Give the backbone structure.
Amino acid sequence: MAEVSLQGEQRVFMTGNEVVAWAAVAAKVDIMYGYPITPQNEIMHYWTRLAPKYGKRFLQTEDEISAGFTMLGGVMTGRKAFTATAGPGNVLMQESCVMAEMMRLPAVYVIQQRGGPSTATVIYAQQETQLTCFGGNGEGHRIVFSTSTHQELFDYTLKAFNAAWTYRFPSFVLGDGYQAKMREPLTIYEAAARGVDLVPTTPLVGEAKPGQFKHLRNTYNTEDELYEVVMANQRDWDAMAPKVVEWKDMHCQDADVVFICHGVVARAAVGAVEELRAQGKKVGLFRPITVRPFPDKQLADAVKNAKKVIVAESAYGQFLKMVDLALCGSKVERVPVLRPGIGITTEELVEEYNKL
Amino acid sequence: MQEVRENNVLQPAMPKCWNEETKPHKFCPGCGHGMILKALGEAIDELGIQEKVVFGCDIGCSLLSWDFFACDSVQTHHGRTTPVITGMKRANPDIIGIAYMGDGGGYAIGSQHLFNAAVRNEKMTIILCNNCNYGMTGGQMAPTTLPGMKTETSPYGRDVEQTGYPTKGPEMVAAVAPEGAYVARGTVANIRQLKGFIKKALENQLAGNGISFVECLSSCPTNWRTNAKQTWEFVEKDMAQYFKVGELRTPQAKEGK
């Protein structure tokens, strides 16, 4: 059976969900666990078509709780595994996410956000930003990449596997229904073709040598015992944060007004900045790519000369809270554009700018 | 197991796959968990699979077994041991996956996992301790609490009009699992038989036939508030009257063999 399915580089035109499946192939994932939910279904559809050709596996579980926990079982055996979900499925998966955080399991979750709760809209929202960064009864010891284009969906899905297996914290690709369903051109590639090393995997259980067994647990006898484990994880997470944090800025240094957005909304902001700059307006854009860890110092630095910032998101203040925290020492005026569950266009952002 | 003597004193005979450093174990006096795990330990020893076993335990009293064996083990969340071991076995079919849980973990919070693992005939072994109540949380009504039985959340006795009848787990698994499944109910009142069931359950996984499920009738004198005699009577008579002990499904010999 062929080991490598992607040879070199390939220019393609495909949906975001298909891109994720191909990125998992490029990452040499062994097994996907999943449960149907819109708008991520086609990740499973493409994976189940690709997987058998390359000796890979798939398990359709009874719900997202099970998809999360079976995936943890998979990574414990040292196999590269992932799952994908959205909305209420993301809620159910948080239980497995916190187990992964505390046991330091290299779990990978792809989230294609939809408007919550229940079926609500199955199309689009950014209402899972806080949930994906801090869901569950833990401390949010995870890495969350918020993508903006199909090329990034590919690049950061590949990166999420490497980050998870390097740092042993669960890693998330935070997309949305627009990115999932939209079709656009991008380049998919074999990791080696771009000089990307795939981080090797190691089993935590199942391949014990006599007398060298391991006991993994999330049960502790005393508060102090739990505290020590959480604090050790916190120290590791703090040490990791500067190595994984990513952001993009655009014309921030001389800007009077800076847009701050993440995910697909940042794409509309790129258009707004280009349009307004062409009119001679001093505007810029700051966009966290990792919303967890958050590029707080970089954001504070990017807006230090600005008079105002426009914070736009398709949720009511979930991202704004993160921005406010990062800018708590700054006097720059915040202008929120909060549209839960609704897409934000370039024209609307230009209009918001003109209202200032 | 061989008789072990140290300084001419007879030492307790322990299965080789037990983790001696964590003994004596953490269960209450009179609890059935230790007996079930002894039967399991002997079965593992006899099959010589200690290095291939991954032992998963649930939340509730079963979690106290997280360091019980000198085997790889993982303590999961409440009800989630079945999916964790399922995921392992799917990713690496060479392991021997054992999911250990109580009646709450298997029949209430994790019932969807047990049911669907049975339907899919997952090639793993599930061992479930049925002691008619939630022990770790202080003796609440469980899916297996007998009609009329008093617990902290059924202080006047389990009212079947309000709460239904006790869950018959092996009967459910036997009803939905495809061919190749092994399903039995044993009891700590008959350890020799119980060990036989558990051994067959492991052999069924080794043969790759399908799911193997063993429910074990067990004791909880702490929460039952019973003395030794009453405890034993409850296990041997009251429980066995409602929960019939025996094999419910055995894999048929494959044709041509």
Q: What stands out?
A: Chain B has one domain: 23-157+167-247. Chain B has nine helices and eleven strands. Chain B touches chain A at residues 19, 50-52, 54, 63, 66-67, 69-77, 80, 83-92, 94-95, 112-113, 115-116 (CB under 8 Å).
